[in-house]
Amino acid sequence: MEVFLSGFGVPPKNKLFIQWSSRYIINNNNPGSYTTNIATATEKTTGKVFLGGTGKHVAETRKADALGVTIHLSQGYFFANPKVNDIPASSTFTQGVSEVEWDNEPPLLLKINTKTDAKSGDYDISFAFTYGDDQHILKDFKTISFHITNWWERNQLWVEIIVGAMALISLVVTAIK
User: Fold this and answer.
1) Predicted local confidence at residue 25, as pLDDT
2) Average pLDDT of span 89-111
3) Which residues contact 111 (CB under 8 A, 6 or more apart)?
4) DSSP label at residue 15
5) What is the per-residue pLDDT for 88?
6) Is there a domain that residue 71 lies in?
7) Euclidean distance between CA atoms 124 and 133, whole angstroms
8) What is the DSSP string of 52-75?
9) Backbone angles phi, psi at 23, to 5 degrees
10) Residue 172 in contact with residue 166, Cβ under 8 Å?
């Protein structure tokens, strides 16, 4: 699942909590992982934080757990995209680093491994983004749905092709006799 963030400004503090709706569908031995590919660097003399790099050469992958993940997003996720130079002066908001792909990869890549015997059906993943400073804390919440298919949904086309081919062969054999 590719995750992009949109907005404006650099929150002093933040966390992104991603939670699956059911722990009974997640593979407990290998629940999945998440990969970030935006890094920051800090200037030693001034302490100023700047964009340290983007893409596969700065990518970090960490393991998820059976309930979800909590991620602290570096300030780099909220910086303006340095590759966009044609923003008009009258524009209030610039394109953010986390609004585009880097090396054909999203800013945050989430991989979830489901159990092979997970019950088919619709499930949810909730994203809670908490951000702010010491005086003001805000939260944005979004839920997306995904579907785990059953055997018939995964194989219906092949079953129909095989049954159709068998019917055609049977018709041809009957016509020849």
Assistant:
1) 87
2) 85
3) 1, 32, 33, 34, 35, 64
4) E
5) 65
6) yes
7) 30
8) EEESGGG-EEEE--SSEEEEPPPG
9) -75, -10
10) no
